[in-house]
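Sample A.
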Amino acid sequence: MRQLEIAVAGAGPAGLAAALVLRRAGHKVTIFERFEQAQPLGSGLMLQPTGLTVLSGLGLLEAILARGSRIDRLYGADARSGRTVLDVRYDRARFGLGIHRAALFDVLHDAVQAAGIAVETGTEIEALEEGDRPRLICTDGRRLGPFDLVVDASGARSRLKRFARDPSEPKPLAYGALWASLSWKPDGFDPHALVQRYDRASVMIGVMPIGRQSAGNREQAAFFWSLKPEAVEALHAAGLDVWKERVADYWPQTEAYLDQIESFDQLTLARYGHHTLKTPAGRGLAVIGDAAHSTSPQLGQGANMALLDAAALARALESHEELPDALAAYCRMRRWHVRLFQLLSWAFTPFYQSDSALLPFIRDRLVATVAKVPPAPHLLAGMVSGTLVDPFGPLGMVEGDWQLPPLRPVEQSVAAKR
């Protein structure tokens, strides 16, 4: 395809990655960010082999690995009985990477700056003026453009996704979580595992190592407590010490983390919603990341899905001469992988975050047992790694060989053909 003039709305991981891959494909890209300074939001996340594959293709794998913490296991137990509820290990030498959102942002942002991609901050997008070459309409009345293509990477609360062919809005989920980034405390915790404790499905506590925000910084952990967003006010009213005593009662080993929390201001409330755009594209518009599909973080796929979206869009543009054909191809490339994992997340979330008494009863007594019987371990590993169905082939990519030290850069079949 000819060189396109592309606007990317949003400077989160999805927007930054999309800008990078599109710029490297030869397009002229400008990022528009609503904040006065582009910055990360939130605590930690998990990069899976899917997301790591995309980052490797961008030449950023080494920098990402240096910041994060390798995760080989996801383990959860009942807070009262100690019964194992969840025990999933990666297979085929794959692994996850716990990483602070700020570290991922910095690596991507540095690469964007090095590529000379313009980032215009303080620009809040309100709407899309559709046409052969769409324009962006800002909340202050400014009209930006025209552009050949607009990429909506502005998250679940996007104002642009309503211009997709089949728009939809997220349905709020009952449970969210309070998150904090704290200093890593190794006593009693596996440095290569995401560990959780549950009381039915109404209480979930987790600790995940997330490496360093930058070189020279101390190792950190993401600490989270699941709750309903409307319960936060009552939590604050009862006081910090009451909450900390409750958490410690469930999981005494977390006192080393609770001692670091001196104010509720250190905790960030994350709200979750579930939605999947049937067609993540419109006239001159491509929708990626949480704007196209959002859900709870139970399967740890959010950032990875966004990175795959960015790679798919670039591949579609490279493979088709006409923009409408490329956008249709982008939708096809991501359709089944996105829908499968959205369905799995929708199905599994109530087992871990809900008011149900029956579902956690089934979970606690059956899941850990069934998970040991083949082929369940392989299927669970595929769910966690995001590879239950092949996400790479439709994108013209090949997953790297994680078994060889040091990790080899991921090969892309497109590059091989050249």
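Sample B.
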Amino acid sequence: MKFGKVDNPENIDFTIPPDHPDTPVVLSKTKTGAEAKIYVGCAKWNRQDLKNFYPRGTKDELEYYSSQFNSIELNATFYRIFPAEQYEKWRDKTPEGFKFFPKMTNEVSHLRRMNDKALEATDRYLEVTSLLGEKLGTIFLQMHNNFGPKNWDRVVRFVEYWPKEFPLAIEFRHTDWFNDKNVANELYHLLEENNIANTLVDTAGRRDLMHMRFTKNEAFIRYVGANHKSDYPRLDDWIERLASWKSMGLENIHFFVHQNLELESPLLSAYFIEQLNTKMGFDLRVPRTTLSSEKGLFD
């Protein structure tokens, strides 16, 4: 994942900003008292990307991946809408409790840019994606960097068109969505009214995307490591913030680990899950890795 990559991550202030004032309000009014559900995963399961993660002789990468993690941020569905039988195969070969968090096709976000034809593409996408059944988590829509507030009417139409039975998170990348407080508040309120999650992105070169504003009781977080020793302290900070949100009533944590070079993503994920279990009382499986778990890996 190259988005937000910088040449000198040691020069970046990775401090997590304070919560948006409306975040505790959203959590307070949406908490149900249910036990928190947490899903942690990588973006891909390809052996080529996750080198040294798979034991020698592994025949089915997804089968093994899903034995170690409880979820995947499924980026492959951004590039194409797969045949129906592919979604059924993914569903059937993963264990009970596993969740897919698939990325919306780029036909909607980049090619059609939420226009009229994007709605038709949305229908085609959901027709097959729904075959994941109970293993379908939140669908993730990532808009193009140059999709700005001048497209507000398209956003309203799309959000109101979206079938509410499918949980959705949207990532807006154009800086003008957040530079103007009035524009940002309009966007937040639209998402909140339609029960759509506002994606948080932690990447080195785009700290403006750390707006820390919830629009529903769901933390959908895309963490992008920099292949640098700072990756671990950043994860420690996220543990502290998630614990704070949990105390306010957060019940859904969806945390996906990326890197500019994906090599260490399983290792970072394993470290993160260990810390979650220790400091927040969860009991998630810690993935096995064949790499050292030392924090000095990037020295």
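B remarks: The longest helix spans residues 231-248. The chain has one domain: 9-298.
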